[in-house]
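$ ./design --mode recover --in tokens.txt
reading tokens...
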């Protein structure tokens, strides 16, 4: 680090203490969706689901303009709060309980125009209270299930290899902002906002599904789509991951960027052209990008038959294996 003009010191590494944290959850149509709290982006999944729970998505159907519009707008809303509040809780009083509450979701839902795409939203206002990613999920014969994700961030991380040690340093500090007063402003001993989020679902207090979707800001978007595909649209575990995905880019970010133009929607092939035209009439702007739609892995547990189901991403490397 010294030879490259970096700020990390031996003391920084020696003083670091990893910690166990309590996950947080929100109930979506009878299923408890579990995420880790900030400094990660996991609660964006809960915020989006809380907003979307107020609509009858099943009747609208997968791939409908109505569903896709609501999904995109819910993402925009959640990402405004993500940009403002998601940061190291040791340095900020982050209002997690309010952000993931049903009452707050009801307030935010009122901001969505069912016929028009918003160019911008503001983050919620209240006084705060107290790409090289890999994903792995594993389950054993006793019913234990683990959801794990790891990432060095951009490409191969920093690209810096210490001496001849054979590993590359991560560059997660890139997700700080230098904007003074921002929750995510760079400071000594502070953890930056990060994107990696392992997902887990329980039903009636028992394990139901361990899963994740790799891919930076696509992670919460991908997780929400997988959950809705299973719960609302009745897909099986593999279908839920194979189904064409939506990705919205250009939202406000924890690094200081602000959305003013509504952002850009990217779609995989599989959505009807007439639906895209309908969304364009609502004001959504589309871009072309064949990649960036995430990488999905999952295990589902059938308690009645004592059977595990595995699913793996069809878009990239991965596999589901029993042993």
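writing sequence...
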């Amino acid at each position: 680090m010294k030879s490259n003009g970096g700020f990390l010191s031996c003391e920084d590494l020696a003083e670091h203490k990893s910690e166990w944290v309590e996950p947080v959850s929100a109930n979506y149509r009878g299923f408890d969706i579990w995420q880790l709290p900030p400094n990660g982006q996991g609660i964006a999944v809960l915020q989006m689901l809380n907003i979307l729970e107020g609509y009858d998505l099943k009747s609208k159907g997968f791939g409908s303009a109505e569903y896709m519009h609501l999904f995109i707008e819910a993402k925009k809303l959640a990402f405004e709060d993500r940009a403002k509040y998601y940061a190291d809780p040791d340095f900020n009083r982050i209002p997690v309980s309010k952000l993931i509450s049903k009452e707050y979701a009801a307030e935010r839902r009122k901001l969505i125009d069912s016929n028009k795409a918003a160019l911008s939203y503001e983050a919620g206002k209240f006084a705060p209270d107290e790409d090289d990613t890999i994903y792995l999920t594993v389950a054993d014969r006793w019913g234990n299930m683990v959801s794990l994700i790891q990432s060095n961030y951009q490409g191969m991380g920093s690209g810096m290899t210490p001496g001849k040690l054979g590993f590359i340093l991560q560059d997660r500090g890139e997700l700080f902002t230098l904007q003074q007063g921002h929750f995510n402003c760079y400071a000594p001993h502070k953890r930056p906002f990060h994107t990696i989020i392992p997902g887990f679902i329980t039903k009636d207090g028992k394990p139901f599904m361990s899963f994740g979707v790799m891919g930076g800001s696509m992670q919460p978007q991908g997780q929400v789509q997988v959950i809705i595909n299973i719960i609302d649209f009745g897909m099986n575990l593999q279908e839920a991951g194979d189904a064409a995905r939506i990705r919205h880019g250009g939202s406000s970010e924890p690094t200081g960027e602000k959305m003013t133009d509504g952002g850009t929607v990217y779609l995989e092939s599989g959505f009807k052209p007439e639906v895209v035209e309908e969304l364009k009439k609502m004001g959504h702007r589309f871009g072309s990008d064949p990649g960036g739609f995430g990488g999905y892995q999952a295990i589902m547990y059938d308690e009645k038959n004592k059977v595990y189901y595995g699913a793996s991403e069809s878009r990239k490397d991965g596999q589901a294996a029993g042993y």
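exit 0
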